[in-house]
Amino acid sequence: MTEHAALLDVAREAVAKATEIVRSRPDFSVSAKGDRDLVTDVDTAVEDALREFLAAETPEIGVLGEERGRSGAGGGRWWALDPIDGTANFARGIPLCGISLALVDGEHSTVAAITLPYLGVTYTAARGEGAFANGERVGASTATELSDAMIAVGDFAIGELAEEKNRARLLLLSDLGARAQKIRMLGTAAIDLAWVADGKLDAALILSNNPWDTMAGVLLVREAGGAVVDRDGSEHTVGSAATIAVGAGLRKEIVDALDRAYGVVR
After folding, report:
1. Residue 179, pLDDT above cutoff 50
2. The dihedral formed by the CA atoms of 17, 20, 21 and 26, expressed in degrees to the nearest 10
């Protein structure tokens, strides 16, 4: 077994443990952690459990999680963990949420697992091995016309400078909404990216780049034959400003739309 295969087994087991926790906690507490930003005690329970598991299984690899920050070994490899991506959905009983785990090596992810605990699907990928949903290979969209495209757009910005950031988002929505088949705002980057990999969405425009939100999905999309770029069209890395995932046939049209929207607000 290769190292990537062994680490993918670790990631797969980790997100399975997370699913058990999420599905076993019908009652939970919700609290605010910032401007219109929520956390539940299930988020922290999942993160604590997975940190313990990952530290035991891969003590040489550190962890960066959304709720607890960075811990464990330093160096160029680390796990990026979102214990529940789509917490606002989860807190309201909306079943669109996911647990996202990626192994980041340098600037890119090399192992990924995203599980959707209420939809019964686990997406996995290892670099060079393809992308899979419940063990079946998946492929990104081959659409070439924007009029055929269903596009997911990430949440509006909150917190500092939100008004300025959202000006460009509104322009982008107006542009794409007039030309794409449909626009969707699902409230979870993990599902946005997994569904681009699975061909359910033709593009996902996540106009920020928290590694715990995006790095697993980025690998899934690339291994499924899609493209993932930064907002300016350059290749996506862990340090990118945005995460733009798209079937390769729509890459230019999507990047051009981003250029128009952000060019107006510069």
Report:
1. yes
2. 170
Residue 82 in marked binding region: yes
Least confident of 34-38, 84-88, 90-94, 186-190: 34-38
pLDDT in tens, 147-171: 999 999 998 877 777 788 888 899 9
Instruction: Provide the angle, in degrees to the nearest 10, between the axes of the packed helices 162-177 and 251-265.
Output: 140
Domains (ranges, CATH) in the chain? 3-137 (3.30.540.10), 146-265 (3.40.190.80)
213 is in an annotated binding site: yes
DSSP string, 19-58: HHHHHT-SS--EEEEETTEEEEHHHHHHHHHHHHHHHHH-
Tokens of 61: 């690899």
**pLDDT over 90 percentage in the chain:** 77
The answer to whether 247 and 202 have CB atoms below 8 angstroms apart is: yes
Any residues with CB less than 8 A from the CB of 197 and at least 6 apart, and which?
123, 125, 131, 138, 140, 217, 220, 221, 223, 224, 226, 245
Query: Is the entire prediction scored with pTM above 0.85?
Result: yes
Position 266 scores a pLDDT of 44
CB contact at 8 A, 78 and 187: no
Exposure string for 38-66, b = 16+ CB within 10 A, e = fewer: ebbebbbbbbebbbeebbeebeebbbbbb
Q: Are 179 and 231 in contact (CB under 8 A)?
A: no
Please report the pLDDT score of residue 156 as a whole number: 83
Q: Is 84 marked as a binding-site residue?
A: yes
